[in-house]
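From: lab user (bench 3)
To: helpdesk
Subject: output format question, protein + FE(4)-NI(1)-S(5) cluster

Hello, I'm new to running complex predictions and I'm not sure whether the block I got back is the full result or only part of it. Here's what I submitted:
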Amino acid sequence: MTDVAKKKKADRNRSIDPAVLEVLARELPVDTAYDRYLSQQPQCKFGDTGICCRICIQGPCRITPKAPKGVCGATAYTIVARNLVRTVTGGASAHSDHAKHILLTLKALLNGHAPDYSIKSPEKLRAVAERFDIPTDGRTDLEVLADLVQLGLEDFTRMGEGSVKWVEKTVTPGRVQKFQECNVMPTSVFEAIASATAQTHVGMDADPVNLIFKALETSLADYTGMHIGTDMSDVLFGVPQPVYTEANMGVIDPAKVNIAVHGHNPLLSEMIVLAARELEEEAKAAGAAGIQLMGICCTGNEVLMRQGVPPVTNFMSQELPIMTGAIDAMVVDLQCIMPGIQTAAECFHTKIVTTCENVKIPGAHHIDFKEEKALEDAKTVIRIAIDSYKERIGQECIIPEIKNKVVAGFSMEALYDLFSAINPDAPIKVLTDALKSGELRGVVLLCGCNNLKAMHDESHTVIAQELAKNDVFMVSTGCAAGAYAKLGLLSPEAVDKYAGEGLKRFINRLNEANADKLEGKLPLIFHMGSCVDNSRSMNLATAIANDFGVDIPKIPYAASAPEAMSEKAVAIGSWNVTMGLPVHVGVVPPVTGSELVNGVATQIAHDVYGGYFIWETDPHAAAQKLLEALDYRSWKLRVHNQTAERYSAAASTTW
Ligand code: NFS
Ligand code: SF4
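Helpdesk reply: Thanks, we reran it on our side. This is the complete output you should expect:
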């Protein structure tokens, strides 16, 4: 390692976000993730490569040349594969817990036990119902919803025969066939999770390939949970449409009651938005200029997409807004919430409010958030924040004056609206024609978390800029989208600054055709929502494949998680591979301890599913590899299309 690389690795200021750097440069009263990352170095190599097994308490067993087997005889490939299955299962559990909660709220709504919720998008309800052949004609919304919720719950609980409808009915026929042939189609979400956990118990499956296929089945259960999450959130809270706002710590307003919503589930954050509007006058009566809401992580993405709430920061820097001294309350639901926020809050007047029975932090306020009294609970949170604001009066706040313009809200429906202005009969052709002509080089989903093994937000940014220059149409979700929001890449100005000629022409064509509909111009990267909304990206890939008349592995579409961190990210990456996409991950996951497992992930998966993983920690090299993957597919697609045209025949789909 060079001296510069060593210094970079030891540097606590591991971010390229200027607001983050400004806060880190101060003398802080408490450690942050940036300090703790350094305290954790060096990290254990056995864990890092996946060859530490703690599945039974004879362990931990670690694989070395001198001790190549665990006490039970498990070798590296079994241990690595088993750990991978458990990681994907963790991710699938998290996403499906989120979706289950939404389904149960809808069930409560049907039974009259969730009075503060209603069906915001009857159109989406009917569109989703029709996808599953649920009759809609002459029926009330509640009747249709009852059938849909029932189907959703069955996708969670079915046992024995059958398979998940949310996979069967949302992907290409080719994929359905592939999943059935390879025996990776889940029967139901809970069945997949339970059987994967059983299969990885001590003394169970030792066959790495069988284990990896189980991981893929579980990842498809993850997709099921996510897709249900997206669909039902749209029904309940509305389908996102373009919104114009701002992002980064400059959105904190010291004159207002500042409330950050953090976590994932819109069930709470949507109610907070509603309650904040209703209690604006109470905040003013307390001496504040009003209430300023802001988002962190995916619940932030949810309320950004539907309500235009500005994102204040993303996962890695979640403790830092507290350090400004101006956050009166941070209300959290579930997932990606660092326990460190409570310690940070204790150094200031900030109140951390937990709301889920399975997410509590010692020292934090806890409100047992229930759908029967959702708005009342949300108002309690706002009042905690107003009281906290009163404590803050007269105290110093130091807020980085950094924010950027953001355009977000690109659901599939919103994208289709934009495309319809050019081609109302076949909106997707606006995109596929640009891919065919070479104006666009491909489509890439930029997704996933932050991870201090990479410089915070740097890999996200470098890859996006490189792809933009090379005319790639980009959609984004999760904390990747959070990075782009903060750093100005979701702004129209970024199109002029970074897009290549083809991409610029494409976006400007959409701008012109939609000038009367949009409040402003379109951004460089299209924000599709939270991590569960990666389902929207899959819908886009499926629409492209169907229009080309081929299966997903043949379209110039790839995904990248430049700074992946969570088990959920591994689950998402795995189903994207299973769906047939090249998936770049910018942090090497713990699989390199087995050449066999690593080979399956990066090569053999390609032969079976058409998708494969690319591990690449250098963002410049990663962008090149993504471009190569797109070019290879475009080239083949064009050759086949041209041949078909020359002989006036249907394009072959068997290559
Ligand atoms: Ni996704 Fe969203 Fe962020 Fe990663 Fe966490 S918030 S669900 S897991 S860190 S992108
Ligand atoms: Fe060790 Fe086997 Fe137990 Fe794992 S399952 S901890 S390898 S004995």
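A quick orientation on your result: The mean pLDDT is 96. Let us know if anything else is unclear.
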